[in-house]
Amino acid sequence: MRRRNFLTAGAAALAGPVAAQEQPLVRLGIDLFSLRSQGWSAFESLEYCARWGARVVQFSEVRFLGSLETEHLRRVRTRAQELGIELEIGMRSICPSSKLFDPSQGTAEEQVLRMVQAARVVGSPIVRAFVGSMADRTGGLPIEAHIENTVRVLRNVRSQVLDSGVKIAVENHAGDLQGRELKTLIEEAGKDFVGACLDSGNPLWTLEDPHHTLEVLHPYVLTSHLRDSAVWRVPAGAAVRWVRLGEGNVAIGDYIRDYLRLCPGRALTLEIIVTPPRVFPYLEPAFWDGYRNVPAWEFARFLRLVEAGKPLEGPPPPSKGEIAQREREDLQASLRWVRQFLEL
Protein backbone atom coordinates (compact mmCIF):
# COMPACT_ATOMS: atom_id res chain seq x y z
CA MET A 1 0.00 0.00 0.00
CA ARG A 2 2.83 2.42 0.75
CA ARG A 3 4.19 1.93 -2.78
CA ARG A 4 0.79 2.72 -4.28
CA ASN A 5 0.52 5.91 -2.21
CA PHE A 6 4.01 6.92 -3.29
CA LEU A 7 3.12 6.67 -6.97
CA THR A 8 -0.08 8.65 -6.51
CA ALA A 9 1.93 11.43 -4.88
CA GLY A 10 4.24 11.49 -7.87
CA ALA A 11 1.33 11.90 -10.26
CA ALA A 12 -0.17 14.63 -8.10
CA ALA A 13 3.10 16.53 -8.12
CA LEU A 14 2.93 16.60 -11.90
CA ALA A 15 -0.72 17.23 -12.56
CA GLY A 16 -2.19 19.09 -9.59
CA PRO A 17 -5.07 18.02 -7.33
CA VAL A 18 -7.76 17.84 -10.01
CA ALA A 19 -5.84 16.39 -12.95
CA ALA A 20 -4.11 13.90 -10.66
CA GLN A 21 -7.36 11.95 -10.45
CA GLU A 22 -7.04 11.22 -14.18
CA GLN A 23 -3.26 10.84 -14.27
CA PRO A 24 -2.14 7.18 -14.51
CA LEU A 25 0.18 6.07 -11.75
CA VAL A 26 2.93 5.00 -14.14
CA ARG A 27 3.35 5.66 -17.87
CA LEU A 28 4.91 2.29 -18.59
CA GLY A 29 6.60 2.11 -21.97
CA ILE A 30 8.58 -0.16 -24.28
CA ASP A 31 11.55 0.93 -26.37
CA LEU A 32 11.50 -1.12 -29.55
CA PHE A 33 15.24 -1.70 -29.36
CA SER A 34 14.15 -4.39 -26.90
CA LEU A 35 12.62 -6.15 -29.92
CA ARG A 36 15.25 -5.20 -32.48
CA SER A 37 15.55 -8.65 -34.09
CA GLN A 38 11.86 -9.33 -34.66
CA GLY A 39 11.63 -7.90 -38.17
CA TRP A 40 8.16 -6.50 -37.44
CA SER A 41 6.42 -3.60 -39.10
CA ALA A 42 5.60 -0.54 -37.02
CA PHE A 43 2.01 -1.76 -36.76
CA GLU A 44 2.97 -5.26 -35.61
CA SER A 45 5.22 -3.71 -32.96
CA LEU A 46 2.42 -1.46 -31.72
CA GLU A 47 -0.01 -4.37 -31.46
CA TYR A 48 2.50 -6.49 -29.54
CA CYS A 49 3.19 -3.64 -27.10
CA ALA A 50 -0.51 -3.03 -26.64
CA ARG A 51 -1.04 -6.68 -25.71
CA TRP A 52 1.56 -6.22 -22.98
CA GLY A 53 -0.08 -3.09 -21.61
CA ALA A 54 2.40 -0.44 -22.76
CA ARG A 55 1.12 3.13 -22.65
CA VAL A 56 4.18 4.53 -24.43
CA VAL A 57 6.09 3.02 -27.34
CA GLN A 58 9.42 4.51 -28.33
CA PHE A 59 10.58 4.01 -31.90
CA SER A 60 14.12 4.86 -30.86
CA GLU A 61 15.57 4.43 -34.36
CA VAL A 62 14.13 5.16 -37.79
CA ARG A 63 14.40 1.49 -38.82
CA PHE A 64 11.68 0.56 -36.34
CA LEU A 65 9.26 3.03 -37.96
CA GLY A 66 10.04 1.65 -41.39
CA SER A 67 9.68 4.98 -43.17
CA LEU A 68 9.54 8.73 -42.56
CA GLU A 69 7.07 9.20 -45.40
CA THR A 70 4.31 11.50 -44.16
CA GLU A 71 1.36 9.28 -44.97
CA HIS A 72 3.02 6.27 -43.30
CA LEU A 73 3.66 8.32 -40.17
CA ARG A 74 0.03 9.42 -40.11
CA ARG A 75 -1.09 5.78 -40.29
CA VAL A 76 1.24 4.86 -37.44
CA ARG A 77 -0.15 7.74 -35.37
CA THR A 78 -3.73 6.69 -36.07
CA ARG A 79 -3.09 3.07 -35.12
CA ALA A 80 -1.35 4.11 -31.91
CA GLN A 81 -4.31 6.30 -30.97
CA GLU A 82 -6.69 3.40 -31.61
CA LEU A 83 -4.60 1.28 -29.23
CA GLY A 84 -4.34 3.98 -26.56
CA ILE A 85 -0.58 4.29 -27.02
CA GLU A 86 1.53 7.45 -26.88
CA LEU A 87 4.41 7.61 -29.34
CA GLU A 88 8.02 8.73 -29.05
CA ILE A 89 10.49 8.58 -31.91
CA GLY A 90 14.25 8.77 -32.15
CA MET A 91 17.40 8.67 -34.21
CA ARG A 92 21.04 7.75 -33.81
CA SER A 93 24.11 9.98 -33.50
CA ILE A 94 23.82 13.73 -34.03
CA CYS A 95 27.53 14.36 -33.39
CA PRO A 96 29.36 14.80 -36.73
CA SER A 97 32.70 13.77 -35.19
CA SER A 98 31.38 10.57 -33.58
CA LYS A 99 32.36 7.19 -34.98
CA LEU A 100 28.64 6.33 -35.03
CA PHE A 101 27.54 9.34 -37.08
CA ASP A 102 26.25 8.49 -40.56
CA PRO A 103 27.08 11.33 -42.99
CA SER A 104 25.32 9.54 -45.84
CA GLN A 105 22.02 10.70 -44.33
CA GLY A 106 22.96 14.40 -44.60
CA THR A 107 24.45 16.87 -42.18
CA ALA A 108 23.66 16.47 -38.51
CA GLU A 109 21.44 19.55 -38.70
CA GLU A 110 19.52 18.14 -41.66
CA GLN A 111 19.01 14.83 -39.89
CA VAL A 112 17.76 16.48 -36.70
CA LEU A 113 15.29 18.71 -38.53
CA ARG A 114 14.02 15.80 -40.62
CA MET A 115 13.28 13.89 -37.41
CA VAL A 116 11.67 16.91 -35.76
CA GLN A 117 9.30 17.18 -38.71
CA ALA A 118 8.55 13.45 -38.44
CA ALA A 119 7.87 13.87 -34.72
CA ARG A 120 5.30 16.56 -35.45
CA VAL A 121 3.53 14.33 -37.95
CA VAL A 122 3.52 11.22 -35.76
CA GLY A 123 2.66 13.11 -32.56
CA SER A 124 5.88 12.55 -30.63
CA PRO A 125 6.84 15.25 -28.11
CA ILE A 126 10.52 14.33 -28.35
CA VAL A 127 13.22 13.11 -30.68
CA ARG A 128 15.62 10.81 -28.89
CA ALA A 129 19.23 11.08 -30.06
CA PHE A 130 22.75 10.47 -28.81
CA VAL A 131 26.36 11.57 -29.21
CA GLY A 132 28.12 8.24 -29.78
CA SER A 133 29.63 5.42 -27.78
CA MET A 134 32.56 4.64 -25.50
CA ALA A 135 34.75 4.46 -28.62
CA ASP A 136 34.47 8.26 -28.79
CA ARG A 137 36.19 8.61 -25.42
CA THR A 138 39.50 7.62 -27.05
CA GLY A 139 41.06 8.53 -30.36
CA GLY A 140 41.95 11.77 -32.05
CA LEU A 141 39.40 13.92 -30.19
CA PRO A 142 38.65 14.04 -26.46
CA ILE A 143 35.05 13.56 -25.37
CA GLU A 144 34.83 17.29 -24.63
CA ALA A 145 35.33 18.02 -28.34
CA HIS A 146 32.49 15.68 -29.29
CA ILE A 147 30.27 17.44 -26.76
CA GLU A 148 31.20 20.82 -28.27
CA ASN A 149 30.43 19.57 -31.77
CA THR A 150 27.04 18.28 -30.67
CA VAL A 151 26.23 21.53 -28.90
CA ARG A 152 27.09 23.42 -32.08
CA VAL A 153 24.68 21.27 -34.09
CA LEU A 154 21.89 21.80 -31.59
CA ARG A 155 22.42 25.55 -31.46
CA ASN A 156 22.27 25.68 -35.24
CA VAL A 157 18.76 24.19 -35.22
CA ARG A 158 17.50 25.86 -32.03
CA SER A 159 14.99 28.25 -33.58
CA GLN A 160 13.42 25.61 -35.84
CA VAL A 161 13.13 23.08 -33.02
CA LEU A 162 11.64 25.64 -30.65
CA ASP A 163 9.08 26.63 -33.29
CA SER A 164 8.09 22.98 -33.70
CA GLY A 165 7.30 22.43 -30.02
CA VAL A 166 9.35 19.20 -30.10
CA LYS A 167 12.30 18.65 -27.75
CA ILE A 168 15.54 16.76 -28.32
CA ALA A 169 16.17 14.05 -25.71
CA VAL A 170 19.88 13.21 -25.71
CA GLU A 171 20.66 9.81 -24.25
CA ASN A 172 23.63 8.84 -22.11
CA HIS A 173 24.43 6.15 -24.66
CA ALA A 174 26.69 3.08 -24.79
CA GLY A 175 29.39 4.53 -22.57
CA ASP A 176 29.71 7.89 -24.31
CA LEU A 177 28.79 10.42 -21.59
CA GLN A 178 28.67 10.46 -17.82
CA GLY A 179 25.78 12.29 -16.21
CA ARG A 180 27.86 15.38 -15.49
CA GLU A 181 28.94 15.54 -19.16
CA LEU A 182 25.40 15.19 -20.49
CA LYS A 183 24.25 17.91 -18.08
CA THR A 184 26.92 20.21 -19.53
CA LEU A 185 25.78 19.42 -23.09
CA ILE A 186 22.13 20.13 -22.28
CA GLU A 187 22.82 23.42 -20.51
CA GLU A 188 25.20 24.68 -23.18
CA ALA A 189 22.85 23.73 -26.02
CA GLY A 190 19.78 25.14 -24.28
CA LYS A 191 17.59 23.35 -21.79
CA ASP A 192 14.55 25.11 -23.27
CA PHE A 193 14.61 22.59 -26.13
CA VAL A 194 17.16 19.91 -25.13
CA GLY A 195 16.82 17.40 -22.30
CA ALA A 196 17.84 13.87 -21.37
CA CYS A 197 16.77 10.39 -22.31
CA LEU A 198 18.00 8.82 -19.08
CA ASP A 199 19.34 5.29 -19.51
CA SER A 200 19.81 3.23 -16.33
CA GLY A 201 22.08 0.61 -17.90
CA ASN A 202 24.68 2.77 -19.63
CA PRO A 203 26.19 4.56 -16.58
CA LEU A 204 28.17 1.47 -15.55
CA TRP A 205 29.83 1.60 -18.99
CA THR A 206 31.20 5.03 -18.01
CA LEU A 207 32.41 3.96 -14.53
CA GLU A 208 29.39 5.67 -12.96
CA ASP A 209 26.84 4.61 -10.35
CA PRO A 210 23.43 4.79 -12.10
CA HIS A 211 21.88 6.25 -8.97
CA HIS A 212 24.35 9.14 -9.22
CA THR A 213 23.45 9.62 -12.90
CA LEU A 214 19.80 9.96 -11.89
CA GLU A 215 20.69 12.47 -9.18
CA VAL A 216 22.57 14.62 -11.69
CA LEU A 217 20.17 14.44 -14.64
CA HIS A 218 16.69 14.25 -13.13
CA PRO A 219 15.89 17.96 -13.66
CA TYR A 220 16.50 17.49 -17.39
CA VAL A 221 14.75 14.16 -18.01
CA LEU A 222 12.27 14.03 -20.88
CA THR A 223 12.04 10.25 -21.19
CA SER A 224 13.90 7.11 -20.11
CA HIS A 225 15.37 3.71 -20.88
CA LEU A 226 15.11 1.27 -17.99
CA ARG A 227 17.04 -1.98 -17.57
CA ASP A 228 18.86 -3.77 -14.78
CA SER A 229 22.57 -4.49 -14.44
CA ALA A 230 24.99 -6.66 -12.52
CA VAL A 231 28.53 -5.54 -11.69
CA TRP A 232 31.33 -7.28 -9.81
CA ARG A 233 35.08 -7.30 -9.27
CA VAL A 234 37.44 -9.14 -11.65
CA PRO A 235 41.25 -9.15 -11.65
CA ALA A 236 41.53 -6.40 -14.28
CA GLY A 237 38.82 -4.16 -12.82
CA ALA A 238 35.05 -4.66 -13.13
CA ALA A 239 32.70 -6.88 -15.11
CA VAL A 240 29.29 -5.56 -16.14
CA ARG A 241 26.29 -7.48 -17.44
CA TRP A 242 22.92 -6.15 -18.50
CA VAL A 243 20.18 -8.45 -17.24
CA ARG A 244 16.43 -8.80 -16.97
CA LEU A 245 14.74 -6.47 -14.51
CA GLY A 246 15.02 -7.80 -10.97
CA GLU A 247 18.07 -9.98 -11.67
CA GLY A 248 20.82 -7.39 -11.14
CA ASN A 249 22.67 -6.06 -8.11
CA VAL A 250 22.45 -2.27 -8.50
CA ALA A 251 19.24 -1.81 -6.44
CA ILE A 252 17.06 -1.22 -9.47
CA GLY A 253 13.96 -1.10 -7.28
CA ASP A 254 15.33 1.92 -5.41
CA TYR A 255 16.25 3.46 -8.75
CA ILE A 256 12.69 3.08 -10.03
CA ARG A 257 11.19 4.60 -6.88
CA ASP A 258 13.57 7.54 -7.08
CA TYR A 259 12.90 8.01 -10.79
CA LEU A 260 9.14 8.15 -10.27
CA ARG A 261 9.58 10.63 -7.42
CA LEU A 262 12.13 12.85 -9.16
CA CYS A 263 10.70 12.67 -12.70
CA PRO A 264 6.91 12.58 -12.15
CA GLY A 265 4.88 11.97 -15.27
CA ARG A 266 7.84 10.98 -17.42
CA ALA A 267 7.62 7.63 -19.20
CA LEU A 268 9.19 4.63 -17.49
CA THR A 269 10.24 2.88 -20.68
CA LEU A 270 11.84 -0.56 -20.70
CA GLU A 271 14.83 -1.10 -22.98
CA ILE A 272 15.74 -4.66 -22.13
CA ILE A 273 19.12 -5.86 -23.39
CA VAL A 274 20.69 -8.98 -21.89
CA THR A 275 24.43 -9.30 -22.46
CA PRO A 276 27.37 -11.46 -21.42
CA PRO A 277 29.88 -9.83 -19.04
CA ARG A 278 31.92 -6.93 -20.37
CA VAL A 279 35.19 -6.14 -18.59
CA PHE A 280 36.28 -2.57 -17.80
CA PRO A 281 39.99 -2.92 -16.97
CA TYR A 282 40.43 0.18 -14.86
CA LEU A 283 43.54 -1.29 -13.21
CA GLU A 284 45.35 -0.98 -16.54
CA PRO A 285 46.87 2.52 -17.03
CA ALA A 286 45.98 2.73 -20.74
CA PHE A 287 42.29 2.29 -19.94
CA TRP A 288 42.23 5.73 -18.33
CA ASP A 289 43.01 7.53 -21.59
CA GLY A 290 39.28 7.97 -22.04
CA TYR A 291 38.40 8.77 -18.43
CA ARG A 292 40.97 11.29 -17.20
CA ASN A 293 38.26 13.80 -16.34
CA VAL A 294 36.39 11.46 -13.95
CA PRO A 295 36.33 12.88 -10.38
CA ALA A 296 37.71 10.50 -7.77
CA TRP A 297 34.63 10.82 -5.56
CA GLU A 298 32.34 9.76 -8.43
CA PHE A 299 34.56 6.80 -9.27
CA ALA A 300 34.48 5.83 -5.58
CA ARG A 301 30.69 5.47 -5.79
CA PHE A 302 31.12 3.15 -8.75
CA LEU A 303 33.74 1.16 -6.84
CA ARG A 304 31.35 0.59 -3.94
CA LEU A 305 28.96 -1.14 -6.34
CA VAL A 306 31.79 -3.17 -7.83
CA GLU A 307 33.14 -4.37 -4.49
CA ALA A 308 29.68 -5.27 -3.18
CA GLY A 309 28.68 -7.18 -6.32
CA LYS A 310 28.81 -10.91 -6.79
CA PRO A 311 29.55 -12.67 -10.10
CA LEU A 312 26.35 -13.39 -11.99
CA GLU A 313 26.31 -16.10 -14.61
CA GLY A 314 23.67 -16.00 -17.27
CA PRO A 315 22.23 -18.46 -19.76
CA PRO A 316 24.37 -19.36 -22.75
CA PRO A 317 24.06 -16.92 -25.66
CA PRO A 318 21.15 -17.80 -27.94
CA SER A 319 21.82 -19.35 -31.30
CA LYS A 320 21.06 -17.26 -34.36
CA GLY A 321 17.65 -18.87 -34.66
CA GLU A 322 16.82 -18.23 -31.01
CA ILE A 323 17.70 -14.53 -30.79
CA ALA A 324 14.24 -13.14 -31.57
CA GLN A 325 12.50 -15.50 -29.15
CA ARG A 326 15.04 -14.72 -26.39
CA GLU A 327 14.42 -10.98 -26.83
CA ARG A 328 10.69 -11.49 -26.32
CA GLU A 329 11.26 -13.71 -23.29
CA ASP A 330 13.64 -11.18 -21.70
CA LEU A 331 11.22 -8.30 -22.26
CA GLN A 332 8.18 -10.23 -21.07
CA ALA A 333 9.93 -11.39 -17.91
CA SER A 334 10.98 -7.81 -17.20
CA LEU A 335 7.47 -6.49 -17.80
CA ARG A 336 6.07 -9.06 -15.38
CA TRP A 337 8.66 -8.10 -12.76
CA VAL A 338 8.10 -4.35 -12.98
CA ARG A 339 4.31 -4.74 -12.92
CA GLN A 340 4.54 -6.88 -9.78
CA PHE A 341 7.05 -4.47 -8.21
CA LEU A 342 4.81 -1.46 -8.89
CA GLU A 343 1.59 -3.35 -8.07
CA LEU A 344 0.15 -2.46 -11.48
Pick out its properties.
single chain; about 350 residues; alpha/beta; TIM Barrel; 8-stranded parallel beta sheet; 12 helices; disordered N terminus
Biggest sheet, spatial arrangement of strands? 7-6-5-4-3-2-1-10
Tell me the CATH architecture.
Alpha-Beta Barrel
How large is the radius of gyration?
A: 19 Å
Biggest sheet record: 8 strands, parallel
Into how many domains do the coordinates divide? 1
Poorly predicted ranges (pLDDT <50, ≥5 residues)? 1-24
Query: What portion of the residues fall into strands of 2 or more residues?
Result: 15-25%
Shape: globular
Account of the protein in words:
The protein is of the alpha/beta class. It has one domain: Divalent-metal-dependent TIM barrel enzymes (TIM Barrel), CATH 3.20.20.150. The strands form 2 sheets. Strands 7-6-5-4-3-2-1-10 form an 8-stranded parallel β-sheet. A 3-stranded antiparallel β-sheet has the order 8-9-11. A hairpin with a 2-residue loop joins strand 8 and strand 9. The longest helix has 20 residues. 42% of the residues are buried.
Topology summary:
Blueprint: H1 2-19, E1 28-31, H2 42-51, E2 56-59, H3 62-65, H4 70-83, E3 86-93, H5 108-122, E4 126-130, H6 143-156, H7 158-164, E5 167-171, H8 179-189, E6 194-199, H9 210-217, E7 221-225, E8 228-234, E9 237-243, H10 252-262, E10 268-270, E11 278-280, H11 296-308, H12 323-342
Parallel strand pairs: 1-2, 1-10, 2-3, 3-4, 4-5, 5-6, 6-7
Antiparallel strand pairs: 8-9, 9-11
Helix pairs in contact: 1-10, 2-4, 6-8, 8-9
